[in-house]
Predict the structure.
Amino acid sequence: MSFREVIGQLEAHYGWPDPPKITDPFKMIVFENITHLVEDERREAVFEDLRRRVGVTPTAILSASPEVLYEIAKPGGMDVVGRVEKLRSSAQLVLRSFHGDLKNVLKLPLKQATKSLNKFPGIGDPRAEKILLFTKRYPVLALESNGLRALLRLGFGEDHKNYSTAYKSAQNAVKEQLLPDCDWLIGVHQLLRRHGQELCRRTDPVCTQCPLDKVCRYYLTRK
Ligand code: SF4
């Protein structure tokens, strides 16, 4: 089954996703760093609390007292101090290197934009690509860990102990079948993520309920 047919099956199963709520590059970085290993609902609640009480701009974050930022970040998992520091250092980096507005990064060529975003805490290539995709600047298939796992299990690319190698392998396996359309690619990112979270889970994937069981390399091999 082709990659596009796989996406069609996932769309039939889950429905096409709503567009993402957060697409501003600085807000996306804050959203990535404000919590640690918590569920989406909790992360959204912590982010919303920050937005309401402080604001999600570099100057607002740097103007807020560390105590208030700590209080806001506290329900977001472990290492509260470290997460507050990440917010503050991200804000400082925007003021220092991007003239106060991270949207300036979108003016750069793809490789340079990715490299610039890599300077932010917690932002490796996959998250940098996600920012460049969700801002609709570059039509790249960004993948997060759930979507990557699902793609590899289905047989697109080869898994590898090095995350970056596995990531590139999956991207290369489907690159000829991608539409150069940011809206479509954003939907694909979200569909694969949802599939990895709900059925193609890291432990105990629910293959018997999966619409792709008949074509999945992982499932067929295990059977
Ligand atoms: S059959 Fe199982 S392993 Fe394969 S994609 Fe579906 S849930 Fe994942």
The first helix runs from residue 3 to 14. The two ends are 19 Å apart (CA to CA).
